[in-house]
Amino acid sequence: MINLQGVSLHRGERDLLDRADCRIFPGHKVGIIGANGCGKSTLFKLLLGQLESDAGQVDLPGTWRISHMAQEVNANEQSALDYVLDGDNELRLLQKQLVQAENCGATNGHKLAELHEHMANIDGYSGPARAAQLLDGLGFSHADQQRPVRSFSGGWRIRLNLGRALMCPADLLLLDEPTNHLDLDATLWLEQWLQRFAGTLLIISHDRDFLDAVVSGIVSFEQQKLVLYSGNYSAFERARAERLAQQQIEFEKQQAERSHMEDFVRRFRAKASKAKQAQSRMKALDRMAQIAPAHVDSPFHFTLPSSEKTSNPLIDLREAAIGYADKVIVKKVQLGIQPGRRIGLLGPNGAGKSSLIKTLAGTLAPLSGERQCGEHLAIGYFAQHQLEALDSNGSAILHLQRLSPNASEQSLRDFLGGYGFIGDRIFEMVGGFSGGEKARLALALLAWQKPNLLLLDEPTNHLDLEMRHSLTLALAEFPGAVILVSHDRHLLANTVDEFILVADGRAEPYSGDLDDYKQWLLGFNREKKRSEEKVSEPADLDETPSEDKKAQRRAAAALREQLKPLTNKLKNIERQMSASEGQLTEIQEKLSDEKLYSGGQQDEIARLNKEQAAQREKMEELELEWLEISEKLEEIRGE
Q1: 346: part of which helix (H) or strand (E)?
Q2: Cα 325 from Cα 329, distance rounded (Å)
Q3: Region labeled Disordered — which residues (predicted)?
């Protein structure tokens, strides 16, 4: 058990923790949340023994193996596969001892046998295969696994650190913002991996859907204390909203915020089509209205103004080939961006989503075809390189003054205040800003210029939960067009009305929602793996191309008979999943009813939360069973 008793921690003039208590039991998976700079990463250093508390006691079992995700990577000639394998120290030590024992020859036979037995006991012989699977899940191709670490960019090196942390057999796993440099498919893979992890997990994350899928408890930094909430992040929001509602001073703010959101939902409902994505977004916005009171004390309050002038279309791509040099990544793109259109780009890693956004932004010219711009097009383009382009020797207010030299200081102060730059912070040099602060400033600069088309490539990296919430609200009401790439499913669900799937060299409309895309992605990755395996297998030169037709029919009939029990079972599971999903929806609607929290119904709330957890567990079991049977069917069919 992790036990913090009366822990105080000071850094400079700041009190991060003041006599804080917290207990986390073995096997629990807990999300650590709080504003940037509140002390989340410092808490990890305490648990790792890299820091000592100023007061109080931090106790962990002495026998626990602890794995954590480092934030720095030494660029060296070591291959990516070997770098990840180094995460398992015991395995690497055994490998060295085996080499030494084998070099000694027959005189050390007993020692050699002991080492091989130990290697088998820790499943060490499968180590390279497990490391390769981790790298595959994190988006590294087979060729990438042999590349030297130094050849990867910063974001991909962070992925290597994540793989190295997951490789370590651990009783306690500490992950600090693991999804920051992941795309959606790698994020979904990591969710599934962590759901299967048997140890204790503490995870710092600002991705609410990721937390909802992985954790069963939340530790929130609140007024230098550690407050433990039961349930996932959504349950935390409801509990916090209920607690704040009991504080009369905050109550009026809550009602105003909820009224504002509910009015927006009504307006959107009147305009929404019957498309599946629009219906999904409507449900998400309904939920946003319910949880709005949990964020009334957010330090971020801003809107995204749009240019008064616009064109129709804003941009038109015609038969555009997108790529670099002579390599086409996406071909024959037909895409017209009209005012008010809101598109989310989906697709596996490397399929060309960012390249498509760069082409729309004009920073990457199409290899062929046309890119036509409207007369009044005003683009607001956000990508991670915008953070690097900021002047490290300039202040936040100076960046705005360069855009608008005649603007008054007060108007600039008011504007920057909505992005969390308050008081004299507007005069601090950008070079000393954190990644989150740089991202907020880049968004502020973008908004100040009043674009009518927002092109956003992973805008939430480095942003905390409160800033993500405020950005989601601002984007939901932005009157211009939006093209968005993000691994943050909450942002996608509440921001876009339609999806375009970028895959297999095409960019085409996608009729499903995010749940459908998750299933599509699982199938895509399975097919990709099978293709890679087939390529690596030598061809059978003795294979006969023709068979007797009667024998083929008999074989087909036998195959159908063999498949029948599995296909029937698969259909039964799908019916159960549909029923369970309906029950989950019904429970969610009951938990979203504000009347439930009017007092005196704590037992009912507890019952519903327990029932919800049971249904989610049932759904996970059914999904795993569905995948297992599907894989068996594929094996039998020889797919």
Answers
A1: strand 342-346
A2: 11
A3: 531-552
Kindly list the strands in the beta sheet with 14-24, ordered across the sheet, starting from the edge strand earlier in the chain.
14-24, 2-11, 55-59
| Amino acid letter, 298 | S
The domain in which residue 505 lies consists of: 315-518
Please indicate, yes or no, if residue 194 is contained in any of the structural domains.
yes
SS (H, E, C) 546-574: CCCHHHHHHHHHHHHHHHHHHHHHHHHHH
Instruction: Extract the tokens encoding 343.
Output: 């598109």
- H helices then E strands: how many in the chain? 21, 18
* Angstrom distances, CA of residue 582 to CA of 214, 572, 575, 612, 614: 21, 15, 11, 11, 14
Question: What size, in residues, is the chain?
Answer: 639
pTM, two decimals, is 0.63
> Which among 459, 489, 518 is the end of a domain?
518
Any idea what the Cα angle at residue 398 is, between residues 397 and 399, rounded to 5°? 90
Q: What is the pLDDT of residues 191-233, one digit of tens each?
A: 999 999 989 999 999 888 899 999 999 999 888 889 898 889 9
> Which of 187-196, 375-384, 417-426, 555-564 bottoms out in mean pLDDT, i.e. has the lowest?
555-564
Pick from 330, 401, 338: which is nearest to 366 by CA? Answer: 330
Amino acid at 469: H
Tally of domains in the chain: 3
* Alpha-carbon 462 to chain mean position: 12
Distance linking the first and last C-alpha atoms of the chain? 46
Helix (H) / strand (E) element for 382: namely strand 379-382
- CATH code of the domain in which 109 resides: 3.40.50.300
CB 358, CB 364: distance < 8 Å: yes
User: Which tokens is 345 given?
Assistant: 């780009």
Q: What is the mean pLDDT of residues 387-411?
A: 90
The backbone torsions φ and ψ at residue 319, rounded to the nearest 5 degrees and listed phi first, read 50, 40
Two structure tokens written together for 297: 């004390």
Q: Which amino acid is at 406?
A: N
Per-residue model confidence as pLDDT tens digits over 331-370: 999 999 999 899 999 988 888 999 999 999 999 999 999 9
Whether residue 501 is found in the same domain as residue 570: no
Q: Is residue 193 part of a domain?
A: yes
